[in-house]
Specification:
Layout: H1 17-22, H2 26-29, E1 35-38, H3 45-51, E2 58-63, H4 66-77, H5 79-95, H6 98-114, H7 127-141, H8 170-180, E3 183-187, E4 201-205, H9 228-243, E5 247-253, H10 264-268, E6 273-280, E7 292-299
Parallel strand pairs: 1-2, 1-4, 2-3, 4-5
Antiparallel strand pairs: 5-7, 6-7
Helix pairs in contact: 4-7, 4-8, 5-7, 5-8, 6-7
Bound molecules: S-adenosylmethionine.
S-adenosylmethionine binds next to helix 3 and strand 2.
């Protein structure tokens, strides 16, 4: 069975996978690339697809979101215990009427938030299995699979309206766990990947989107915002890794969707190959924000 993302994630790349796979460096197909790094891994759509298509020896994933990284660690190390707990949560949730489901959802959300202050993200142990179970439960049952936290870092997304949500997709969790056995999973800023990049490395960057307009800023993945200054800093990092000879791809929303004169990324990535591809956005805060838009793909090689 082919493993796919086990979380719903804003900006998930499932919609754009074909476009991305079509633009991989030819060295990947020739077996000349030995390492894959994804510094903003999110739900990992590209990582799962890539490692099941090409035999890459070393894979490193990073994300600043420690809740997300905790789930990856538990899927890697304790998938059977995770499945048992999720199966219990799923059986109970599906047996309840809507009002009782709400009580269960908000109870779990509250427990999850109450444990945050003392939670030991830095050490792996049994405490992480319960947290990962609660996180997956909330992710599969909340509104649109969003991850949004308040200033204190508390998860504050309301319950979604799914009749039969899949909370425990055990076959996929096992398949993902098998893949993750050889993956290095790291919580941290994308620049922590610096020491791992060499000239036989392919890096795919999928940073938080630059909001298409000031009012559509829904990219609340973590308490750390990603401003235009962060996008500029990331472009410096891209140039630094380019000089090292690594193969690089980066995606983002195309500001020209809303303002044809906005050349923000064209200027930041001048000198590289910039392509505009069609994507269907999965998650948006407004219904009218759905539909076909363009995304940009920046590569430092010819495609
Ligand atoms: C657009 S999402 C990636 C989506 C992913 N490609 C997928 O298919 O699900 C951006 C990710 O970057 C993470 N992030 C935000 N700021 C970061 C930083 N400074 N360093 C590393 N990761 C960061 C967020 O937590 C989020 O998971």
């Amino acid at each position: 069975m082919k493993a796919k993302p086990f979380l719903k994630w804003a900006g998930g790349k499932t919609q754009l996978l074909d476009e991305i796979m079509r633009r991989l460096p030819k060295e990947m197909k020739e077996g000349k690339i030995h390492r894959y790094i994804e510094p903003f891994v999110g739900s990992g759509a590209v990582m799962f697809e890539l490692v099941q298509t090409y035999p890459i020896e070393e894979v490193f994933i990073f994300d600043i979101n420690d809740e997300l990284i905790t789930v990856y660690e538990v899927v890697q190390k304790d998938v059977e215990r995770l499945i048992n707990r999720l199966a219990e949560l799923e059986t109970l949730f599906l047996s309840l009427e809507k009002e009782k489901r709400k009580v269960m959802y908000y109870d779990i959300r509250q427990q999850f938030n109450e444990k945050l202050a003392d939670f030991r993200f830095g050490t792996y142990g049994d405490h992480k299995i319960e947290r990962a179970s609660e996180f997956i439960f909330l992710n599969r049952t909340c509104f649109n699979g969003l991850f949004r936290v308040n200033k204190k870092g508390e998860f504050n997304v309301p319950m979604g309206d799914y009749k039969h949500p899949t909370i425990c997709d055990e076959d996929n969790l096992r398949a993902a766990s098998a893949i993750l056995q050889t993956v290095r999973i790291m919580q941290g800023d994308y620049k922590e990947s610096r020491g791992f990049v060499h000239d036989k490395t392919f890096v795919y960057f999928d940073p938080p989107y630059r909001p298409l307009s000031a009012s559509s800023s829904f990219t609340a993945y973590s308490k750390f915002d990603f401003t235009d200054d962060h996008q500029r800093e990331l472009a410096h990092y891209y140039r630094e890794l380019d000089k090292r000879g690594a193969f690089l791809m980066l995606s983002n929303s195309d500001p020209k969707n809303t303002d044809p004169m906005d050349a923000f990324f064209d200027e930041l990535y001048a000198g590289f190959t910039i392509e505009r591809v069609t994507a269907r956005r999965n998650i948006n805060s407004k219904g009218n924000g759905r539909g076909t838009i363009h995304e940009i793909l920046v590569t430092n090689y010819e495609v």
